[in-house]
Sequence to fold (142 residues):
Amino acid sequence: MRIGELAERIGASTRSLRYYEEQGLLSPSRDSNGYRHYDEAALVRARNIKDLLDVGLTTDDVLRYVEQGCLERPLATSGRCTGELVTARERLESLDRRISRLQEVRDRLAQHSDALEASMAPTEARRTATSRTRRSRDGTSD
Fold:
């Protein structure tokens, strides 16, 4: 099958499939005219790759599956890969660290914003009062 048919069958874009190939996850054969050709084994492999990426693994994570030879059978319905739990836990730990760092940045920014607001509040109050005084002298109102 050609790349468009494979993309349609697994619910991915042709661009995604070319990306999988660039990352060393998928290796289609080539027809004499240079077009990519995918067999049924490539269909299983591409579906597994898409499913693993969809749950949040990275292409580097999925490469471990390639190295273990785990993508040649449907992961959803067959036995799991031996390193799959380790890979998933490592990715979760990495995400938890990123979330923690982002929360720290958010907290610092919120504190900074609160401090700015507190320091600007008296200035804003004076500006508003001055503006009202000017308008009342000019005969304009709110």
Notes: The first helix runs from residue 3 to 10. The chain has a mean pLDDT of 87. The longest strand covers residues 29-30. The beta strands are 29-30, 36-37.
